[in-house]
């Protein structure tokens, strides 16, 4: 049955009730996708959204199957799915509100943006400027470090999004009348607060790592370069994995890092192809436009496919590590 689900998702296009081909098997995900196309999201952002929606689709279909078998009685997985969906909406600016998170004074960032700020966070900006002028890093190491800083900035944004969804749920929670429903919502809120606490712990550990690297430079035996892979490796080293399990995981993380790099390569190619297409469209040669459009569409498809595989692998690795004594966040 599980094979049937993944096979259908990966190999066939979904159809709606009128037998029209659609991108996803779940109506609300198609609505988000269609809205993103109308909003004319940048190609790489659109590709990233597609991968996130594909992961959401896989998780929701798995949950429906579990629910049909009488599992998830406390609604914990359902609440997590809803939370992840809300995070996707907020992440791509589709939650129907202006993005005030970066200006909100009770959030992690409580300063005015100044000229020269790179990461919208005073602690990160200060560290980055220190790293740039320290002379400890080669140009290549600085690029790697900058990716780590940007990854940490994304983590802060995700934390603020989850914080917003928790605040909104608490507002709704205050208006609950039924005691039974109240108990359920209390449980869901507890889950959300646990998630927030874990995200905050992860942020603090991530920042400490950046601080350490800025002061000491990269060690000669740095295992990985990609921020997501480094984060997983640090998480694994703090878990209850045995030496053999860590060695095995290290090898798998090496394969995963290759996948991440390949995905980034396709994203760069997609961006270049989009720029070329715009240039060709401005010139107006129909044959030339057609050829470039075909190339662009092929690259877009490939970037989405690679993005899904990469995020699925990330999810599997995160779950594998978390089962060995660690809480985790999935986004």
UniProtKB/TrEMBL annotation:
GO MF annotation, one: low-density lipoprotein particle receptor binding
InterPro entries on file: A2-macroglobuin_RAP, Alpha_2_MRAP_C, MG_RAP_rcpt_1, RAP_D2, RAP_D3, RAP_sf
Domain Alpha-2-macroglobulin receptor-associated protein: 2-100
Gene Ontology, cellular component aspect: cis-Golgi network; endoplasmic reticulum-Golgi intermediate compartment; endosome; plasma membrane; rough endoplasmic reticulum lumen
Biological processes per GO annotation: negative regulation of receptor internalization; negative regulation of very-low-density lipoprotein particle clearance
Domain Alpha-2-macroglobulin RAP C-terminal: 118-331
Gene3D superfamilies (UniProt xref): RAP domain
Any Pfam family hit: Alpha-2-MRAP_N
PANTHER family in the cross-refs: ALPHA-2-MACROGLOBULIN RECEPTOR-ASSOCIATED PROTEIN
Name this protein carries in UniProt: Alpha-2-macroglobulin receptor-associated protein
């Amino acid at each position: 049955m599980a094979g049937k689900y993944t096979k259908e998702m990966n190999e066939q296009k979904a159809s709606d009730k009128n037998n029209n081909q659609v991108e996803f098997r779940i109506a609300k995900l198609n609505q988000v996708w269609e809205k993103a196309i109308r909003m004319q999201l940048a190609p790489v952002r659109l590709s990233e959204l597609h991968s996130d929606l594909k992961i959401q689709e896989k998780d929701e279909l798995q949950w429906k199957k579990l629910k049909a078998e009488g599992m998830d009685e406390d609604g914990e997985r359902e609440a997590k799915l809803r939370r992840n969906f809300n995070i996707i909406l907020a992440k791509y600016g589709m939650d129907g509100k202006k993005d005030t998170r970066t200006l909100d004074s009770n959030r992690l960032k409580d300063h005015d943006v100044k000229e020269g700020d790179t990461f919208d966070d005073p602690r990160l900006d200060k560290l980055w400027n220190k790293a740039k002028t320290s002379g400890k890093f080669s140009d290549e190491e600085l690029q790697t470090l900058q990716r780590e800083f940007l990854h940490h900035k994304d983590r802060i944004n995700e934390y603020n999004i989850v914080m917003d969804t928790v605040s909104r749920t608490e507002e709704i929670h205050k208006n609950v009348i039924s005691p039974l429903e109240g108990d359920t919502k209390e449980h869901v809120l507890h889950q959300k607060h646990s998630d927030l606490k874990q995200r905050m712990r992860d942020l603090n550990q991530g920042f400490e790592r950046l601080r350490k690297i800025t002061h000491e430079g990269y060690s000669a035996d740095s295992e990985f370069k990609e921020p997501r892979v480094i984060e997983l490796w640090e998480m694994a080293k703090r878990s209850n994995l045995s030496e053999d399990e860590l060695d095995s995981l290290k090898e798998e993380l090496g394969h995963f890092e290759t996948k991440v790099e390949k995905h980034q390569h396709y994203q760069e190619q997609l961006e270049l192809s989009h720029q070329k297409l715009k240039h060709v469209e401005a010139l107006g040669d129909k044959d030339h436009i057609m050829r470039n459009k075909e190339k662009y569409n092929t690259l877009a498809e490939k970037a989405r496919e690679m993005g899904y595989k990469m995020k699925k692998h990330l999810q599997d690795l995160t779950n594998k590590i978390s089962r060995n004594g660690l809480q985790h966040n999935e986004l």
